[in-house]
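Hey team,

Filing this mostly as a record. A colleague (T.K.) asked me to run one chain through the structure pipeline before their review meeting, and I want the input and output archived in the tracker in case anyone asks later how it was produced. No errors, nothing strange. Just documentation.

Input sequence:
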Amino acid sequence: MTDITAGAIPVAARPPRRDIGIKKRYAAEARFKAYGVAAILFGLAFLAIMLGSVVTKGYTAFWQTNITLPVTFDAQVIDPQNKRDEDPMILIKANYDKLAQAALLAKLGIDPAEKAVVAKTKGILSDSARIVLRDRVTADPSIIGQTVEVSMLASANIDSAFKGQIDLSVPEARRKVKDQQVEWMKQLASDGSLAEKFNTGLFTYGASSRPETSGVGVAIVGSLMMMAIVLVLALLIGVAASIYLEEFAARGRLTDLIEVNINNLAAVPSIVFGLLGLSVFINFLGMPRSAALVGGVTLSLMTLPTIIIATRAAIAAVPPSIRDAALGLGASKTQMVFHHVLPLAMPGILTGTIIGLARALGETAPLLLIGMVAFVADYPATPLDPATALPVQIYMWANEAERAFVERMSGAIIILLAFLMVMNITAIVLRRKFERRW
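Output structure:
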């Protein structure tokens, strides 16, 4: 056997091993990973701070303080001359504030003759109490002359105090809720007359000057109307434009110019589209201001580049072999596109569309410029009726001086974030469910 060590170089005579920087490369890689993790944690920390601030200020908006009182529907107050059969407007014009005030005084054991004490009870019930009583009577006139338990909203100040949002330890002169009102509040809470209930009005009410009767119901309907318009216009036009540019358009300077402009439009600030909607749709075409139709068309223009880019990417991702196979079997180019390419690209198209809709749902600046900051208390029946949107309602509440509107604003932000999360999660689920890897 050959001795393989015969010609080996002695260890002492070997040249020193050259340091090729392996340790430095490993150290640099570890630092890079640490920087990446730090950046992620930094972003998550700010996200947690933002969400924590919104949630802590807004979760209480989903609960509303109510006062349940035995109300006597006195016929001498509602219809003293018994003419409601001849004139139904008598039931609407009756002094229901007097009935609500009498029920509160009776519950607190206050003599109506004590004018100074009675004056302090004015800020306990919400001004909407008369509307609640009026609706009960107009819906069922037979309750006139009876005593019925009725749940009414507390005023915004009592609501905030009951939720602990007003510091009652400060001097009485520096807060809106007086010491006597605090005592009455405790008295009503002790027997269960004053309690928090789930605030369904936050989802059903429209704009109001009173925080306790303000809600996002009208804004949600307006946003849904606009999103429906955006879905129809942006999806149809965007998919059609994408198919033409990707499958049928001849390559040339005109096509390149169109592609460059589409990419540039995707980066244009949204307020520019608001200026476009104001000048074209409202000033030139004379469309109604503050209408869901104008908002939907304006947001469609803003969303269109995003959908076109996503749709073109989805169409381009379909392997050329699918096209060649369809054409080889005798299909026309139109059949090849609509029967084979488009179905395979549909997951990407749906994902891009949902992301575009999510962006449009959260936009405020374009809607401000086209006048959707109007005080809208009634639900829009058609896209031509005055409407508002959820982001605009949040913006309007942010400018209010009342403390209770801050709570409503944060609650509306939570609702908007929930909508956006659902839309983005839907996009992810659809992409993973229908996506094909080639």
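Quick notes for T.K.: The mean pLDDT is 88. The two ends are 56 Å apart (CA to CA).
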